[in-house]
Every structure is written in C-alpha cells, then in structure tokens.
Design brief:
The chain is mainly beta. The protein is 3% helix and 44% strand.
C-alpha cells in the first residue's frame, strides 16, 4: 500500500505492479482540512487515459483510478475545490462537470456536488452547446431554509451559471449575492443600478422546452435576477426561501419560438416557499404561465410581490403580508383557495389591456371558509340550504339564527321553502291566503335609521305560521319561525346587500342556530310587518297589514254610459264575484 500526500504527488508515483492500492491523504499538500482524498488502484499502461484531475491521475507509463463505490460520494473537493469562500473554485467545478457527463453511459445525468461550506465560483458559461442535463447539488440538509452549502458572488455582472440545458436540477444551495442598496432613500422598486453589484445567479437560455427542478434553495442580497428561465415545462420549485432581495427571484419568460408555439411558459409548481423583504420590481416575475400551481407560499414585507398576469394558476394557501403593492394576477385564469391578506396585502384580479388571450378566456374563483366568489357561471344539479324539521303532532318554534348588519340601510332576504300539509290538490283555488299550492315565504329584514324592521310575504300555503325577531341595537337581530305540525322540512337560504368578508373585515354575518325552542320566554317579541307589493313604478298590486288588497293604477275618466261593456270574474274571500267594465 502506498500513501501519497497530494494529487500532484500521485501523478508522479508509479505503482510497483497493476492492482497496487494508493491512499491519497488529501488533494493539496499541507492542506490541514484533509479534503479530496480517497483510495486509488494503480495500472501499468504505455498509453494511459487522460488525466481528469479527480478520478484519474496519469503518469507516462501508468495511471491511478479512484475507487468509486457510489458516484454520489464524490464532490468538488475531489477535483481540487477549496471551499474557503475566497478562492475561485470554478476550475474544480468544470472538472467535475466534465467527469459527470462522461462517467458512465448508463448514468449520464450526474451533476456537480458541493459539500457543506462556502464556495466562490467565477462565472461559468456553457451556452456554446446544448446539454441534456445540468445538475448541481449542495449538502443534503432536509430543511430547505438552511442549506449548508453557500455560493457567494464575485460581484461581476455575468451569471454564476449560464447554461443551455434541457433539464436542470439545483438542490441544497444557498446563494449570497453580497449586494446592498439604499432602501431608505429609494422608496420605489430598487433597480440593478442602485445595487452595489448586479450579478445574477443562474440563467438557462435553451428554447422550446426546459424542465427545471429546484428545491431546498435559499437566496439573499441579490442585485441581479436569481433564477432566469424561459419556455418551461414540468418544472417544480420546492422549499424556496429568500431574504433581502433587490432583484427578481424568479424571472420566467418565453422565446416566441415558432415550432411548438412557445409564446408562454407552462407547468410550473411552486410550493412550500417563503419570500421576505423583497425590494425589486417583482419577486416572482412569471407572466403568461399556463398550468401553474402555487401552494403554501408566503410573501411578506415586499414592495412588489410579483406578476402572474395572463396566466392560468391554481393557488392553494397563499399569504401576503405587509406588501406595498398588489400581487398582479390581472387577465388571469385563476382559482384561489385559502388566500390570507394581512397588514395591507392585496391581489389584483382586474381585466386590463393589452391582454394575451380573448376576453372569453379570463375569470377567477376564490373559495374560503367564509364564502366563495367568482366571475364565471355556476351550474348545479339542484340547490339546498339550511333546514329545520317539524314532524311532530304540534306546531313548534325554531330559532333560525342571528344576523349582523354593520352598515346603515343594509338588507337581508330570508327565502323559506315549506308546505303546510301533504294534502292532495283538489278543486279550484279560491282564497289566496288559504288555497293549497306551492309554497314560499320571503322575510325581508332591513337596518333602518333608528332600528331594525322587517316585512313578510308568502306564496301558497307555507308551513311558516309566524315569525318573531329580537332586535339587538341596530346591527343584530335574532330570528324565530313557527312551523305547522307535521309539515316536515323547511329549507331556507339568505341573500344580503353585504358587505361580504371579501370586502370588509367587519362584514354581514349569519350565525345559524337551527334549534327547537324549549323555553317560549326566549322567543323575540317583534313581528314583521305583513305587507307586500308588486309594481313597475307606475302601477301595481299589494297587500297591507290590515288585510286590505291595495291597487295602484292610472285614473280613468267617467264612462259616458251606464251600460257595462262586460264583466270579469274575481274571487273575493273564496267567492266568485263579477266586476263590470266600461
């Protein structure tokens, strides 16, 4: 067994015979960290393979080959990387990338692995040729907010990595752009010119489709764009964390390549991410992204959260806190669930010009625990609502619940569907108050200038026999209904002039109760006014609290004859009567 003290020494140390084992103690002589070592097997050859400065050390008539049990065990240290945050390790990076692309015909998608530490990489440009893969890995800390591998900026203007790769993976890396800017004097978006350096981190220039996977990634102090992509598909960004960013974190565009119609990016999934203290013009710049998903994303203390305009997004649990400008989702096809807007956070869902697609394409829907709102249509097989049931042999009172009306002149309409009896319809309908027919009750409750008032009207023969209110100041009212014995189910829905929770923190609110009353002394004492009217602003019919039918119509001149031109039949209180007309 041979022991050598550096990779350079290994190149000059010949094995005594093929199969000799050499132990490389460290890559560089006198390196107190003892990094980059390993076991090598010696071979004798008149034409040794090319020395790759990492896995093959070649002399003139011999070579040493590194023992590799698992290619994942190798990292940039084994190719001469120093990892001190000061020395340029771009040479070692290129050596390892070259090895990774030629290691094995069955494993062509290896990448460059960084161990824990701080690395300075001067700009590397691979855009001269298309690559099938570009993968870089940091230390495998499962907590994405704290990668143990940091790459620091050399403060130039070129990206650290500029590639032309069909598939990209970046995992377990922290990027420190080492930029600063005066955010006190400059209150609007910070531009690159305002930053002490403008270096971007990563850019992929390939067109017509690129699949990018980034996870357990952190960025801070960037003066340039962190990640710049175009024409994406099948791309996933998970556990992304940023703090104090002056440029864009994600800048995703399109190439307008004619083949395949690449006038947009597609299939981006951004999950489990937190973006804090962003000062650029957009933390997430991703317009025209179709098939996009945001899930469990938090953006806070950021001047311009981002631009998702003209895109198709499913957004599940998005938090916007203390952001100076709205998150731009204009002209979008957006479905949102669990959107939390705190300390001034907003989203913009407007339809604006210019726009990418036709007006028929756009719309949005938002679903929350307190309600749903949408711009499009809704189709259902049938509708139901709150329900109380009386199958007993006696009339009973039920408390429907309590309503809130925080603003003056607001109105609630409680629409109740019920039927007093299951009797079969027979004969001809007479008295409209007692005739058996389909049944509806409308209870209208309004906040007036000094108190809450209500009126009620019915259609057919409903099971609702009586209604009582308990007025609590001018903002709350409790509602009870009395249902006829054996009437079965009474279903009700409510409509209101608002505001809803989407519009105001203090909103209209219905708190259901739906309980049967066991103590009649708890029932409210205010009855709604029994009045109704149907009119067109000129003429109409109605009924008042005295049981009088009311009519409004144009006045007529007196007839010139006392002979009736004819008669019409009107049923009055159950009896057919004749009314003459002239």
């Amino acid at each position: 067994m041979i022991e050598v003290n550096s990779f350079a020494e290994l190149r000059t140390t010949a094995p005594a015979k093929a199969g000799d084992l050499a132990i490389l103690r460290r890559y560089y002589d006198k390196d107190s960290t003892f990094r980059g070592g390993g076991d090598f097997v010696g071979f004798l050859s008149a034409t040794p393979p090319a020395d790759d400065s990492g896995t093959l050390a070649a002399g003139s008539t011999f070579y040493w080959k590194r023992v590799i049990h698992d290619p994942d065990e190798l990292n940039i240290y084994h190719f001469g990387g120093k990892g001190d945050g000061v020395t340029d390790d771009s040479g070692a990076f290129k050596l390892m990338m070259s090895w990774a692309q030629t290691f094995n015909t069955n494993a062509k998608d290896l990448g460059v692995r960084f161990p824990a530490g701080k690395f300075l990489i001067n700009p590397i440009d691979y855009t001269g040729t298309d690559a099938a893969f570009f993968y870089i890995y940091g230390d495998d800390n499962p907590h994405g907010a704290m990668p143990r591998t940091t790459i620091v900026s050399n403060k130039s203007t070129a990206p650290v990595f500029k590639v032309q790769a069909r598939r990209v993976a970046i995992k377990g890396i922290a990027w420190n752009g080492q930029a600063t800017a005066d955010i006190t004097t400059n209150k609007a978006a910070i531009t690159s010119a305002m930053c002490t350096n403008q270096q971007p981190f990563f850019e992929n220039t390939i067109v017509a489709g690129e699949s990018v996977v980034i996870n357990r990634f952190r960025a801070s102090n960037n003066g340039g764009t962190v990640i710049k992509l175009l024409d994406t598909l099948d791309s996933k960004f998970d556990q992304i964390y940023t703090l104090t960013t002056y440029g864009r974190v994600f800048d995703i565009g399109w190439s307008d390549t004619a083949a395949g119609v690449w006038d947009h990016s597609t299939a981006i999934e951004l999950t489990n991410a937190n973006f804090q203290t962003g000062y650029g013009d957009a933390t997430l710049y991703m317009p025209r992204v179709t098939q996009g998903i945001l899930r469990n994303v938090w953006i806070e203390h950021t001047r311009f959260p981002g631009d998702l305009s003209d895109g198709g997004w499913t957004i599940d649990t998005l938090n916007l806190e203390d952001c100076a400008n709205p998150f731009n989702m204009n002209n979008g096809r957006v479905q949102i669930r669990q959107l939390n807007l705190q300390s001034g956070g907003k989203v913009s869902l407007d339809t604006t010009s210019p726009r990418w697609l036709s007006g028929y394409e756009y719309g949005w829907r938002r679903d929350e625990s307190f309600g749903s709102t949408m711009t499009g249509s809704m189709k259902a097989g049938w509708y139901t609502g709150f329900k109380v049931t009386n199958t007993s042999t006696s009339d009973k009172w039920y408390k429907l619940g309590k309503i809130n009306m925080p603003k003056d002149n607001q109105q609630w309409v409680v629409e109740m569907i019920s039927k007093a009896t299951n009797d079969v319809l027979t004969g001809t309908a007479g008295n409209p108050v007692t005739a058996l027919s389909s049944c509806m009750t409308w209870l209208n409750i309004s906040r007036c200038s000094t108190a809450i008032y209500a009126d009620i009207q019915h259609k057919g023969s409903p099971a609702v026999l009586d209604v009582k209110l308990n007025r609590i100041g001018v903002t709350y009212a409790e509602i009870w209904v009395k249902l006829k014995a054996a009437s079965g189910d009474m279903m009700f829905n409510l409509k209101s002039t608002g505001p809803s929770r989407f519009e105001s923190g203090e909103c209209n609110l219905f708190t259901p109760d739906l309980s049967e009353v066991t103590d009649s002394t708890t029932i409210g004492t205010t009855s709604p006014n029994a009045r109704m009217s149907l009119h067109n602003g000129l003429a109409g019919i109605g009924a008042n609290e005295k049981g009088v039918l009311t009519v409004a119509t144009v006045a007529a001149t007196a007839p010139t004859t006392t002979t009736a031109a004819g008669y019409i039949t009107v049923n009055i209180n159950g009896t057919d009567r004749k009314i003459a007309y002239f």
